[in-house]
Design a protein that fits this description.
CATH class of the largest domain: Alpha Beta
Shape: elongated
Bound molecules: dihydroflavine-adenine dinucleotide
CATH topology of the largest domain: FAD/NAD(P)-binding domain
Structural class: alpha+beta
Distance between the termini: 25 Å
Helix content: 25-40%
Mean pLDDT: 96
Number of strands: 21
Largest sheet: 7 strands, mixed
Low-confidence stretches: none
CATH superfamily of the largest domain: FAD/NAD(P)-binding domain
Length: about 400
């Protein structure tokens, strides 16, 4: 039977980083994964350029039943630490917006850097994991390539998002097996879907993007909103999806810099002969302005002829559009899984299970979910480093 000091399950962001942090003289570290290639999510992240961290990383950028849990790991391994590694590897990067750092080139440079950093550890792909047990001395993992025995076991198999590239609920099963509690999981950073009524507006506008602001359930974001054939997407929708639960209505401000009712009323005096649609088109994409006018029966109407009440109704429609999603696109397209292994059962400094010494959980499988913008990778690096050093 093969014997190692540290066995890491999952060769994604957290698993690869943990292997690099755990390497010490004479220590045998093995990483196993069932996929064909390591770091598949890194490869597809950030539109292929990997938003590898965020300079504004702080515990308040993460959702968790214990909002302070991430503080320890993030304070010991921060965004600047990862940027230093990226610089040392000669990978050029740029800040896109709001502290989000992206590679100038391909995301796979990050995976290459992680693989170089863990030289000395062994990585074995295309290895199915069957069972995990503990015999009182160490862990035994049955795999498609035989049994591996390990003094310490790190579970880094991620969450359930994007099963097509290898995501499974394996980490949650292992946690349950060893008596750790779970916080209910659901798809997050995910497009929202709508019923026919709203789709009548969204569908013809598919591809139209507008800067919008949404405040909901403790989250507040301002960013691009994208109409799709099935509902709404874009960064502001992905962000708010983490704060939305089914059945809730969202209030969307489609023109956050303008009080539309006041602007239209003022416009009536200055350029009253224009149509309502073109007046509205000063603040919104023309197609969206036209669709809203059509919805309210004002396609040809002149601004000058509209009473205050009607302009106020349009203002409310634009500045406070109320929509009730019927659901999300689910794990098929979600960037992350909200919820996961309950942090009450993990040590925040080391990510070790409180009741099972030697067993660690890191990365997305833990109930720590970042906002969109590089926070989730930063959590993967920080939690992996905490476990790797422990
Ligand atoms: P990760 O999912 O990376 O790795 C888990 C590994 O475990 C995988 O290699 C998988 O094959 C393996 N595995 C799973 N089940 C197994 C089993 N049963 N047996 C064996 N192996 C198993 N974040 C961010 O900060 N910036 C960004 O730009 C993006 N962009 C982005 C785009 C898209 C499309 C997605 C889906 C996600 C993002 N993310 C992101 C989120 C980010 O990718 C995610 O938070 C991290 O990859 C999580 O790292 P982990 O190592 O925990 O899981």
């Amino acid at each position: 039977m093969e014997q190692v000091d540290l066995l890491i399950l999952g060769a994604g962001a957290a698993g690869l980083f943990c292997a690099g942090s755990a390497l010490r003289q004479g220590r045998r570290v093995l990483v196993l994964d069932h996929a064909g290639n390591p770091g598949e999510k890194i490869r597809i992240s950030g539109g292929g350029r990997c938003n590898f961290t965020n300079l504004a990383t702080a515990p308040d950028r993460f959702l968790s039943r214990n909002p302070r849990f991430s503080a320890s790991a993030l304070s010991r391994y921060g965004a600047r630490d990862f940027v230093r590694l990226v610089d040392q590897a000669g990978i050029s990067w740029h800040e896109k917006t709001q502290g989000q750092l992206f590679c100038d080139g391909k995301a796979t440079q990050i995976t290459r850097m992680l693989l170089d950093r863990m030289q000395g550890a062994e990585l074995r792909m295309q290895t199915a994991l069957h069972t995990v047990s503990h015999d009182g001395i160490g862990f035994m993992v049955e795999t498609s390539a035989g049994t591996v025995r390990a003094a310490q076991l790190v579970v880094a198999t991620g969450g359930k998002s994007i099963p097509k590239i290898g995501a499974t609920g394996f980490a949650y099963d292992i946690a349950a097996q060893f008596g750790l509690r779970m916080v209910e999981t659901r798809a997050a950073l995910v497009p929202l879907t709508f019923a026919e009524q709203e789709l009548a507006l969204c569908r013809p506008l598919a591809g139209v993007s507008v800067e919008a602001e949404i405040r909901h359930g403790g989250g507040g974001f301002r960013d691009a909103l994208l109409f799709t054939h099935r509902g709404l997407s874009g960064p502001v929708i992905l962000q708010i999806s983490s704060f939305w639960t089914p059945g809730e209505t969202l209030r969307v401000n489609l023109a956050p810099d303008h009080d539309i009712a006041s602007e239209l009323k003022a416009g009536r005096g200055q350029a009253g002969r224009v149509s309502v649609a073109s007046a509205l088109g000063r603040f919104l994409p023309a197609r969206l302005a036209a669709a809203i006018c059509e919805e309210t029966g004002l396609t040809q109407a002149r601004l000058a002829d509209q009473p205050n009440k009607r302009l106020e109704a349009i203002g409310a429609r634009v500045n406070g559009w109320q929509v009730r999603p019927v659901g999300t696109e689910g794990y098929r397209t979600a960037e992350v899984t909200l919820g996961g292994i309950d942090t009450r059962d993990l040590d925040a400094r080391t990510m070790q299970a409180r009741k099972m010494p030697g067993l660690f959980f890191i990365g997305e499988c833990v109930d720590v979910t970042g906002w969109l913008g590089g926070y989730n990778f930063q959590w993967a690096w920080a939690s992996a480093d905490a476990a790797g050093r422990a």
